[in-house]
Amino acid sequence: MAITDWPADERPRERLLAQGATALSDAELLAIFLRVGLPGKSAVDLARELIGRFGGLNRLFAATRGEFSAVPGMGPAKYAQLQAVLEMARRALAEELRTGAAFGSPGAVRDYLRLHLAGLPHEVFYALWLDAQHRLLAAEELFRGTLTQTSVFPREVVKRALAHNAAAVILAHNHPSGVAEPSPADELLTRELRQTLALVDVRVLDHFIVAGQAQPLSFAERGLL
What we know:
- This protein is an alpha+beta fold.
- 44% of the residues lie in helices and 15% in strands.
- A hairpin with a 5-residue loop joins strand 1 and strand 2 (136-144).
- The radius of gyration is 20 Å and the shape is elongated.
């Protein structure tokens, strides 16, 4: 049955307008983006299939053009629309971090990092460089690794800090395994970077681990800084 044949109070778009976006499931929100389904399959059915195929929204958002277009009914145009929506969300969050104190907006920081890192199949090490008022100066991927590890060189991190004239930094990396728990190596690296960056008067405010759908883990909240 097509969504247009559903009772009005059950249609995703009408429910969003009446109750707000938070009232909708992941599949219903995605269905609004998709707009139409396929013969014999509503937009909600197609959305559920997409989420199931990729294992969640994060993996779907991180899909390559080829992976996304391989799904029946999807193609370059829909992929371009999805990437445009994601980039607008990233830029809106970056704008919030640039105009206010990033460390005072932990929710915005977490959302920003999840949009960038959560669905990646490989490990990356990321930095949010901040000025003296903790406003965002730049966000950049510093290192990229394999599925299980990445090599981080403190000397290169210091060079990037100086290049941005940063006063502080929020570090982040992802765990493609989906487990947001720090390893002993993660803790050792964080201590080493904190000590090394202190030599050039750059303060490490936090280090986040991003893993799948879970809330990014904060080293500062765990008492690991």
